[in-house]
Automatic annotation (TrEMBL):
Keywords per UniProt: Magnesium, Metal-binding, Nucleotide-binding, Nucleotidyltransferase, RNA-binding, Transferase, tRNA processing
InterPro entries (UniProt xref): Bact_CCA-adding_enz_type3_sf, CCA-adding_enz_C, NT_sf, PolA_pol_head_dom, PolyA_RNA-bd
Gene Ontology MF: a single term: tRNA binding
Residues in Poly A polymerase head domain copies: 24-146
Co-factor(s): Mg(2+)
Any Pfam family: PolyA_pol_RNAbd
Species in which this protein is naturally found: Paraclostridium bifermentans (Clostridium bifermentans)
Keyword Nucleotide-binding among UniProt keywords: yes
EC number, as in UniProt: 2.7.7.72
Full protein name: CCA tRNA nucleotidyltransferase
Ranges where the CCA-adding enzyme C-terminal domain occurs: 256-395
């Protein structure tokens, strides 16, 4: 019997359910990851006990009624959350996303049958061992992503499964089974029924995986046509650059949008998938400046620091280094050394570091818009000559105008 090590808390939850006359298993991603050799992030438990019975068994614990209509409660044990879901059969899917109703069942196989991929339809407990009715372990050994049953049916039930197939492929470096892949291409339009937030979440996981180049499957299946991005034209070879970069969302998202080939169109991704204002701003700053020439000149670097800030400049330089080998050879290290020198010497490149401020200019008789103009004039002088960043010199410059 295959043995999977499960945490003490999980083992105790399963034992408590058995002691009350029911059965329970860990199921899905935690089983898959344990077999593959990845430490699970969390443990989902499935049982033939109905939600009311489960709540009765664990009445002395804090329970959150997460999705009780669909059979799920969340149990808090030793500050950890465990989702416990009743075996169920899903009803019809009217919106290509969620079942309109669920029926509870006492048969673990019926519950596993409704799941997305064979590698996610394996259950386990320390009493019975593995329950693998759909050859999930065989597919793990063969490194294959395959739907449980007919892929067209699985994807029509939940269009997000199309992106999830690619996500699991990118996480595990598994090949998508030919029948499943064909169905992805044929059913790609189902994605338009999925919320932007859910698509973004899955895309982010693909981009931040060890094999982000698998995102090409979605591009090749024409997912971006659904977003009315007709001019994007990705070069598959450029995806190696995505893979070689740091696992940072801003970096990988910017590189991905750049290699889509049409920056103005690829910026639509940020809006359509509802990225945060911060991520949008950082990615747009990178994309807008990527083709600009950045040279190893301290004044130029300070102007960049003034215009886009420290964090964005670091991002820009790194993305430029990944995309442009010539830039990396010639400038990347030199510019980073200049930034370190600017920081070490506390050289001024922003108004807040200027030795003269608006109140000082107001005291000298300047008003309104004129104050801003004079401060910016002084700032550029200081950027070129750091030694004059003191009140005396700056007032002398103003008085000499």
């Amino acid at each position: 019997m295959m043995k999977i090590n499960i945490p003490t808390d999980v083992k105790e939850i399963i034992d408590d359910i058995y002691e009350n006359g029911y059965e329970a298993y860990i199921v899905g991603g935690c089983v898959r990851d344990s077999i593959v050799g990845i430490k699970p992030n969390d443990y989902d438990i499935t049982t033939n006990a109905k939600p009311t019975d489960t709540m009765s068994i664990f009445k002395n614990y804090k329970i959150i009624e997460t999705g009780i209509k669909h059979g799920t409660i969340t149990l808090i044990k030793n500050k950890n959350e465990y989702e416990i879901t009743t075996y169920r059969i899903d009803g019809t899917y009217a919106d290509n996303r969620r079942p309109e109703y669920v029926e509870f069942t006492r048969d673990i196989i019926e519950d596993l049958k409704r799941r997305d991929f064979t590698i996610n339809s394996i259950a386990y407990n320390h009493k019975v061992g593995i329950v693998d009715a759909f050859d999930g372990i065989e597919d793990i050994n063969k490194k294959i992503i395959r739907t449980v049953g007919n892929p067209d049916e699985r994807f029509k039930e939940d269009g997000l499964r199309i992106i999830r197939a690619v996500r699991f492929s990118s996480k595990l470096n598994f090949k998508i089974d030919n029948k499943t892949l064909k169905s992805i291409y044929e059913n790609i339009k189902l994605i338009k029924n999925i919320s932007s937030e859910r698509i973004q979440e899955e895309l982010n996981k693909i981009l931040l995986s060890n094999y982000p180049e698998k995102i090409y499957i979605l591009y090749d299946a024409k997912m971006f046509d659904i977003f009315e991005m007709k001019n994007v034209k990705m070069n598959k070879n450029d995806l190696a650059k995505l893979k070689s970069s740091k696992k940072d969302l801003v970096i990988r998202l910017s590189i991905f949008m750049y290699i889509l080939g049409d920056i103005n169109e690829s910026k639509k991704i940020l809006e359509l998938l509802r990225y945060s204002n911060k991520i949008k701003s950082q990615c747009i700053t990178i994309l807008d400046n990527l083709d600009n020439k950045i040279i190893d000149d301290k004044v130029s670097i300070k102007i960049y620091l003034k215009e886009i800030g420290h964090e964005s400049l670091n991002y820009l330089l790194y993305v430029k280094k990944i995309l442009d080998m010539e830039f990396e050879k010639k400038y990347y290290d030199k510019i980073n050394n200049l930034i370190k020198e600017i920081d070490l010497n506390k050289e001024c490149y922003s108004l807040k570091e200027l030795a003269l401020n608006g109140r000082d200019l107001n005291a000298l008789g300047y008003k309104g818009k004129e104050i801003g103009e004079k401060l910016n004039f002084l700032l550029y002088n200081v950027i070129e000559n750091p030694n004059i960043n003191n009140k005396t010199d700056l007032i002398n410059i103003i008085n000499s105008l």
